[in-house]
Write a structure and sequence with these properties.
Rossmann fold; globular; lipoprotein; Cofac_haem-bd_dom
């Protein structure tokens, strides 16, 4: 007997949903330490042993956010105590973020808050936020207030007033004597080479270091309140590598086992990804 078309389509969809995420999306996950391909399930089994899971993104790349959500789903399914840290929200919007997750703020109202915090389309991030809300997973607003970042990027960290520094998380600093500065110099130095005799590049590094330090402090502060929570932090690539936020955490005395998962970008392609910066690299099929 011929199976009705609608039922056949249902079974095709069911089988597709049952496939591992790596097979569905067509991406390859590589363990950088030995260049071996792994499944998402193997990756998440390793993530289960980490205190901090950093998942990088190119902000407007929808597949990167799909991957972030799938890792969160997998870890949630393992019944682990989770919190999701997000670069897209600034620390001074934490109360509004808490209200949204608690269900006391509507999506329409929260979208206005989101738009004040982040310039990219809400729809790129919506599924992550809604999954957190539906499952009551706490979210941490990781970023420092953007007006301070803009000021530092234009005038340098020294331009911040004592009052502005008091609005930063305790311990936030802008010490350029860290491995990430050399990493940025290698990746972005050419862009700034001919601008203001290098001063603009220094301010760029200071702004990046300020954000890394601030995000690290916000993670530390959350873990002081909830010490057994696994943090999944969603940030841009240059904040998520080991010598960025994880390094700032270590410099401030946090002893956290971390796992860093990054999408493949040109700086990490053709074997350029180093285990000193990344644990797992994900390549996606061309559009």
């Amino acid at each position: 007997m011929t199976m009705p078309k609608t039922i056949a389509l249902f079974f095709v969809l069911l089988c597709t949903l049952a496939l591992p995420f790596s097979a569905r999306a067509g991406q390859t996950i590589t363990r950088v330490s030995d260049r071996q391909a792994v499944t998402l399930q193997q990756l998440c089994a390793q993530a289960e042993t980490a205190d901090l899971v950093m998942i990088g993104e190119v902000h407007d790349a929808a597949p990167h956010h799909d991957l972030q959500l799938e890792v969160i789903r997998q870890l949630k399914a393992r019944k682990l105590p989770l919190a999701i840290g997000v670069e897209v929200m600034q620390s001074d919007s934490q109360k509004e973020l808490d209200a949204f997750i608690a269900g006391t703020m509507s999506e329409a109202d929260f979208r206005q808050v989101f738009a004040r915090n982040w310039s990219y389309d809400w729809r790129l991030y919506r599924d992550i936020f809604m999954f957190a809300r539906d499952n009551r997973i706490p979210m941490i607003a990781l970023n420092v207030p953007k007006e301070l970042v803009i000021k530092v990027s234009r005038q340098g960290y020294a331009a911040l007033t004592p009052e502005e520094r008091r609005n930063l998380p305790e311990g936030t600093m802008c010490d350029l004597n860290n491995p990430h500065t050399e990493f940025l110099k290698h990746s972005f130095g050419e862009v700034f080479k001919h601008v203001a005799k290098g001063r603009v590049f220094q301010y760029f590094c200071e702004a990046q270091t300020l954000r890394n330090s601030g995000m690290a402090m916000n993670i530390s502060q959350y873990l002081k309140k909830s010490p057994k929570t696994k943090i999944v932090a969603l940030t841009g690539v240059w904040h998520g590598v080991k010598n960025a936020v994880p390094e700032q955490l270590a410099r401030n005395g946090a002893k956290l086992a971390s796992l860093v998962l990054m999408p493949e970008i040109k700086e990490f392609s053709a074997g350029k990804a180093s285990p000193e910066a990344i644990d797992y690299l994900v390549s996606f099929p061309s559009p």
